């Protein structure tokens, strides 16, 4: 009788461990979660990196804008810099309190920004914006991983094995 129970107990423990491994969050990532649940989640595994940028072409003056972010220890996102080429419609003409405004090599910079978010929403451009993520000094077009026109929630999360498997790794989709 005891010999029959031991394999069942061992098998049960192995199955429980396998289930736990699949569902325990293991990998911290920048997550682009579409509001439309029929689309796959896209992500960038962070490893030991904690900075990323989002670059896009402004729809009115058709020049590049780069928003720089860092990931705080509590997984919030801090925008610390904004770079743009035109002070036209839709772009700031100066820095807010505590920030610095610089013009350098024909570009404008707002630095020392302390805008902190638990997450933010981004609509992937359909026509001109060509949203890209800059990570580890490489550009990754978001339209290769996320359908243009999609609204995504950008946040820092730990993903489990199943989420990693079902999602789209932006670094590998180019």
Uncertain stretches of 5 or more adjacent residues: none
State the distance separating the first and last CA atoms: 57 Å
Largest sheet: 7 strands, antiparallel
Question: Percent helix among the residues?
Answer: 10-25%
Structural class by secondary-structure content: alpha+beta
* Share in β-strands: 35-45%
Biggest β-sheet: strands ordered side by side in the sheet: 6-7-5-4-3-9-10
Shape: elongated
* Run of helices and strands: HEEEEEEEEEEEHE
Number of helices: 2
Number of strands: 12
Could you report the average pLDDT, rounded to the nearest whole number?
88
What does this molecule look like?
It is built from two helices and twelve strands. It has helices spanning 2-23, 161-166; strands at residues 27-34, 42-45, 51-57, 64-71, 77-84, 100-104, 107-117, 119-123, 132-135, 138-141, 151-159, 168-169. The radius of gyration is 21 Å and the shape is elongated. A hairpin with a 7-residue loop joins strand 1 (27-34) and strand 2. The mean pLDDT is 88. Strands 6-7-5-4-3-9-10 form a seven-stranded antiparallel beta sheet, with no helix packed on it. Strands 8-11-1-2-12 form a five-stranded mixed beta sheet. The longest helix is centred in the N-terminal third of the chain and has 22 residues, at 2-23. The protein has 174 residues and is α+β, with helices and mostly antiparallel strands.
């Amino acid at each position: 009788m005891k010999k029959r129970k031991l394999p069942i107990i061992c098998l049960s423990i192995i199955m429980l461990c396998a289930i736990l491994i699949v569902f325990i969050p293991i990998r911290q990532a920048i997550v682009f979660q579409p509001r439309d649940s029929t689309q796959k989640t896209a992500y960038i595994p962070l490893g030991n990196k904690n900075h990323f940028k989002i670059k896009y072409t402004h729809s009115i003056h058709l020049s590049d804008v780069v928003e720089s972010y860092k990931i705080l220890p509590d997984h919030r996102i801090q925008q610390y810099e904004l770079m743009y080429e035109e002070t036209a419609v839709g772009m700031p003409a100066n820095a807010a309190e505590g920030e610095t405004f610089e013009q350098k090599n024909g570009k404008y910079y707002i630095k020392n920004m302390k805008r902190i978010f638990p997450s933010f929403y981004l609509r992937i451009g359909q026509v001109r914006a060509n949203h890209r993520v800059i990570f580890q000094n490489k550009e990754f077009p978001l339209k290769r991983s996320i359908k243009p026109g999609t609204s995504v929630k950008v946040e820092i999360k730990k993903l489990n094995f199943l989420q990693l498997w079902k999602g789209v790794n932006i670094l590998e989709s180019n």
